[in-house]
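hey
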């Protein structure tokens, strides 16, 4: 029985150290790709984008032109943050809200629920250890420890 417990602990350790960071990276890349492509399509023909926001995409509480600029900006800025793993929890929030608005006001698709789960995962767990945030955090902690040892 001890051998099974040891194997299980090893399995959990591997998933925690390797599996989780890779999974979070894959989710970040997957979601960034979706929104980046959508943003690029919007800016490639701005007149069509504005037309669609005026006549097809009825965004509640926002004038159509502002909604077009806001959605396009979010779709072009957030993917950069997601890919790099900068402020991942915060970056996932506006696209999460966009997906909710799309799902419940314009286009009902089952894939939106998958996107919401993926984005919620990023909001809960952050970018993981394969992210610029983690690298910056590591450098700051290293610097603090170095300064403490220097004073001693």
């Amino acid at each position: 029985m001890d051998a099974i417990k040891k194997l299980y602990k090893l399995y959990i350790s591997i998933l925690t150290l390797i599996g989780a960071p890779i999974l979070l990276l894959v989710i970040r890349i997957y979601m960034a790709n979706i929104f980046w492509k959508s943003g690029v399509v919007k800016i490639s023909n701005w007149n069509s984008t504005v037309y669609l926001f005026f006549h097809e995409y009825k965004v509640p509480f926002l004038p159509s032109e502002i909604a077009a600029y806001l959605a396009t900006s979010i779709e072009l800025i957030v993917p950069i943050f997601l890919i790099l793993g900068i402020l991942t929890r915060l970056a996932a929030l506006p696209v999460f809200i966009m997906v909710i608005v799309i799902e419940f006001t314009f286009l009902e698709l089952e894939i939106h629920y998958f996107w919401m789960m993926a984005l919620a995962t990023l909001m809960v767990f952050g970018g993981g250890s394969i992210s610029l945030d983690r690298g910056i955090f590591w450098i700051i902690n290293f610097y603090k420890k170095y300064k403490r040892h220097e004073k001693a």
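The helical segments are 2-44, 46-55, 64-84, 88-105, 110-125, 132-151. The two ends are 48 Å apart (CA to CA).
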